[in-house]
């Protein structure tokens, strides 16, 4: 689920339901589907409370949560809901430390510039201290935090692999090297934008950053990303309709017939 409060571009405002509430509903309505956030903006919630929310959802879902985190980027939603827009990465760094400590160890203390928690305890404890924590990152400082703390990294949004994707992957590899970490221990995830096939020409930039919902093309992309080392594809469907979900299912069956 996306974690946005509203979108405001060129004077047009749109929005979507609050993602954590929707994830809780999905957890109750399903038994096998994995749950995740792409990604929770840590600025929108107190980090200690967020860790408790994550532990609770992982409990009620039977251990199906991947906790995706990010620092946020869309200033209009910060401003509309009264959140500060400054020092996003600095605030995220402290929040990430709090969340990781509480989920992994059940305890937390931090006297930071942005957050203060004292003798905090996560009780009941997280049912899975190894609950995957994913960070979406692109800039050097965020990549360093990912290499230091996260179980998985997300880069987005793409169509077929391109030079930009390869540059992002090199930057992540270098960040891991600086932190003394083998990138093989970091789960690699990629966000793919899958669009409805167009009857006419498609804008060149949009074509480079998305895939038409054609089974052979999506199968080609999934094969290519798997070959590079990505283990998880997060697909954003444009538009989000039953027909597009069916197209994606057909593509996966084309890619892995045994899945279909």
Q: Proportion of β residues?
A: 15-25%
Structural class: alpha/beta
What composes the largest sheet?
8 strands, parallel
Number of helices: 9
Poorly predicted segments = none
What is the CATH superfamily label of the largest domain?
Luciferase-like domain
Mean pLDDT: 94
* Helical residue percent band: 40-55%
CATH architecture of the largest domain: Alpha-Beta Barrel
Look at the structure and give the CATH class of the largest domain: Alpha Beta
Total number of beta strands: 12
Task: Please state the overall shape, judged from the principal axes of the Cα atoms.
Answer: globular
Give the termini separation: 24 Å
The domain count comes to: 2
CATH-assigned fold name of the largest domain: TIM Barrel
* CA-atom Rg in angstroms: 19 Å
- The string of secondary-structure elements, in order, is EEHEEHEHHEEEHEHEHEHEH
Tell me about this structure.
The structure is a single chain. The protein is α/β, with parallel strands linked by helices and 260 residues long. 42% of the residues lie in helices and 22% in strands. The chain contains nine helices and twelve strands. The radius of gyration is 19 Å and the shape is globular. The mean pLDDT is 94.
